[in-house]
Hints:
The chain is mainly α. It has seven helices and no strands. The two termini are 18 Å apart.
Amino acid sequence: MDRATLSELQRLMERLADGDRAAFHPVFAVLWPLLRRFAARHLRPEEAEETAQETLVKIFLRAGEFDASRSALAWALGIAAFEIRTVRRRRLRRREESPREGELEGIPGAGPTPEEEAMARDMERMLQEALGALRPEDAETLRLYARGRRPAVAAATFRKRIERAMARLRGIWRTTDGRP
């Protein structure tokens, strides 16, 4: 999706969130092909179109919840990802699909699905890029905290450093919508 389309989607979603009913059709026109392709990559062909429709219904029902400071595309794809996971879990519960290795009789195993592994890799990459944008001392503070270690400073000082580093990391994350 090119930048012009992304900005148009953002503007349209802001209008929709503000209650402008004239934005329904243009939002549909932009999102429908994208959501169909996204669902088709993760579901069976007979499930993809219905899931894309369900996603659009949820987007339109929840349009008032859209936060204009966030990416409209990320918000829409987040809703789509939830719908896709729901369809896949429903299919597994109905035993329409044999359990993957590590699963017993339809009860999910301890291991992540390939989709979850791919999302985890993407999140790890984005987090590493965001950490790289932090000041070195902030990144080191967060690494120590993640490892359960603390430098030779007072506990309150370290907590304050963590709080500041996390605030800066959140700021970086928000300005890039999770795409450093």
